[in-house]
What we know:
This protein is of the alpha/beta class. It has seven helices and eleven strands.
Amino acid sequence: xxxxxxxxxxxxxxxxxxxLPDIQxxxxxxxxxxxxxxxPAAGKRVRHGLNILYLPTDWKADTKWPVIVELAGNGGxxxxxxxVSTGLPEGSNLGYGLSGGKGFIWxxxxxxxxxxxxxxxxxxxxxxxxDPQPTLKHLRESVRSLCRDFSGDETKVVLAGFSRGAIxxxxxxxxxxxxxxxxxxxxxxxxxxxxxxxxxPGSDRESALTRLQRLGKRPVFVFTVDQIPIxxxxxxxxxxxxxxxxxxxxxxxxxxxxxxxxxITRNPERLEEFKLILRL
Length: 280
């Protein structure tokens, strides 16, 4: 009887799941441009030093452009669905998906090892200290040179990341005052700083809350599969205490939190929705 009851309770969920197509069978509405050689130009995605740089199709040198700086997930990942994360900047797609290839310069920046001479595929620095300083130095220099050389708007630089990169939005992006002042907004997809402990020092909740104090009045948009603890009267990691969970709210200096995966709308609404969320 108990088995029958469980089966009946699960039946609606199973029927819905059976009706859903494999996501890989859905034709993408965007295709990230292939990595090409040569100098950066409008509509081209090129290797620029250790970084990967894309200038939007409408880019002009005499206009200031908002910038999406993207940090990749950990490498060495592959699941049964064929999803792969290489840990390299050329494997990133989030910035192009958010902008649709228009209106934003998109810069994918790697993490560096402790010597600062090789790309770190997992986390940043080397075990066991995971020193972030070479990565932070490269990140700051990359943003400043991009804005100088390709007409990036220093007042409109968004830091975005997937998985490891989502954690790094706070861990690296708000690591110190010099780095924290680079960004106007943050877009973290899958995970968030301080929700879980990881192998590197300072991954705990208290350290993350200290970093979060550098956020100020800037917006953060968080997609996460993690459960964020909520306690009455206690500031909650992932949102300010005066934000009602779990739905989307956009208020000055508050974190926009989504507790499950939701899709940004398809083009042409994608770019305008992204700008609205992060007040660009």
